[in-house]
Amino acid sequence: LIDGISLDSREVNQNFLFCAVQGEKANGNHFIEESFKKGAVFCLTDSKEFQDSNILYLKDLKKYLGVISSRLFNHPSQKLETFAVTGTNGKTSCVELISQIAKLIDHQCGYISTIGTSFDGKDFNFPSSLTTPDPVTLQRYFHEMVKKNTRQVAFEVSSHGLDQSRVVGTSIDTAILTSFSQDHLDYHKNIRSYKNAKKKLFTELRPKNIILNIDNILGKEIYRDLQKSKEPNSFFSVSSQAGADFHYSFLRTEDGCIDVKLKTPEQQIYFSLNTISKPLASNVICALAAFLSRGFNLD
């Protein structure tokens, strides 16, 4: 009966479900009539003003868009190995690194990041206007990846996206925190709200596996919370301080590289990175930890 779903009346086709929500810049409820003219067969709305058998009011519709979209696309994220990356800095590079590592071990890994989207990790499909797409678009992207036989996906999760429930309805295998510092206070108003938005990825979205850079206050807080939690997930710390699950040390070389010594729960690894950026190098550790903690052999 329903062949598609859209938040934008301009993208509605025959037999679509149109979701009309009040946005920051436009009100989708003003375009319900247009969506029916274009072929929509049903409409969900966050407004009580409509009296029509084909229009259903749903309180807190925005919060459920991801779940609704996931069901319509037959739960695509459950068919992928998902890596969700958040952090004040380092999200984009960590997502790119995960996709590149996957390619090296012959896994097809799509990505969704600030720089754009690739359904197979090879071809560039779309530029990006948001760090984390709206929930309908996000589930559609996962669906397209499944159609291309993609096995994994790495995607950026912004604090705005978490606060606006864009990732709800997504099955998350590994959640990663790359860093945390004061930012986005124009939106979140205070550091506490910003931290609470970030925490949702590791609590409300219930990832199976968690990688935390604990060289920041938020990473330390979440790690302590997880130690007290009874949630059935695995979690690992990443730090330059001794005692972390993934403990690393960096040594800059004269030729402009960084020699890395990484102690994991299973082994010690030595390698060199062609960069002078220690933050970038720590993102490499987070990406490696994501694979190693899930049992992948990277030798």
Automatic annotation (TrEMBL):
Residues 2-67 form the Mur ligase N-terminal catalytic domain. GO terms for molecular function: acid-amino acid ligase activity; ATP binding. InterPro entries: Mur-like_cat_sf (IPR036565), Mur_ligase_cen (IPR013221), Mur_ligase_N (IPR000713), MurE/MurF_N (IPR035911). It holds the Pfam family Mur_ligase. Residues 85-290 form the Mur ligase central domain. This is Mur ligase central domain-containing protein. It comes from marine metagenome.
